[in-house]
Amino acid sequence: MYIIAGLGNPSKQYEGTRHNVGFDTIDYLAEKYQIPSSGLKHKALYGKGVIAGKKVLLVKPMTYMNLSGESVAELVSYYKANPDDELIVIYDDINLEPGSIRIRKKGSAGGHNGIKSIIGCTGTQNFKRIRIGVGEKPKGWDLADFVLGRFSKEDRKLVDEAIEHAADALKMILQDDINGAMNQYNRKMPDPHKDDAEGNFVI
């Protein structure tokens, strides 16, 4: 059983915010693979299904971002999952442009409080993760205000495309091809805000 956890904040006021792209990805996966919600358990909304021939648990922790690890650790324990092999976390990254994703086999929290909580509660940082770019915080902005804000129409379109790419990357990971997913998706994406003299994207 693979636990696929998308991070975000519960309640309607946070829907569509930068910090909730993990939730958005879980919703997209649930619709794409017709995985119905099974309700609330272990402080998370969850649904059981199959992706790429593998049994999965799609999870949205309802603990708020900073306490995501409480829910994820409970699920790991209940399902006797090995987080190093069977946990995949999807979340926002302000160090990536909207439209970009990055796949990692393991790593530090990188300043993300949700990941910091998961590492602290599970006792490992060796779980796989898919990071979805939400763009860099503008100078002078408060970080919380930025990540809890919503995308421009242009950036929302790019992020929706990135969520589709994240779903495709997840399928590859579940097919034991994380290296292939990294090779395909960890390349630098064009910056949509920077064009060359002929109007083409500059990479």
From TrEMBL:
Catalytic activity: an N-acyl-L-alpha-aminoacyl-tRNA + H2O = an N-acyl-L-amino acid + a tRNA + H(+)
Active-site residues, record numbering mapped to chain: 19 (proton acceptor)
Keyword Zinc-finger: no
UniProt site (Stabilizes the basic form of H active site to accept a proton): 92
Site (Discriminates between blocked and unblocked aminoacyl-tRNA): 9
Binding site for tRNA: 14, 64, 66, 113
Family matches, as InterPro entries: Pept_tRNA_hydro, Pept_tRNA_hydro_CS, Pept_tRNA_hydro_sf
Gene3D superfamilies, alphabetized: Peptidyl-tRNA hydrolase
Keywords noted in UniProt: Cytoplasm, Hydrolase, RNA-binding, tRNA-binding
Cellular component per GO, a single term: cytoplasm
Domain of life: Bacteria
Subcellular location: Cytoplasm
GO biological process: protein quality control for misfolded or incompletely synthesized proteins; rescue of stalled ribosome
Entry protein name: Peptidyl-tRNA hydrolase
Taxonomic lineage from the root: Bacteria, Bacillati, Bacillota, Clostridia, Lachnospirales
Gene field: pth
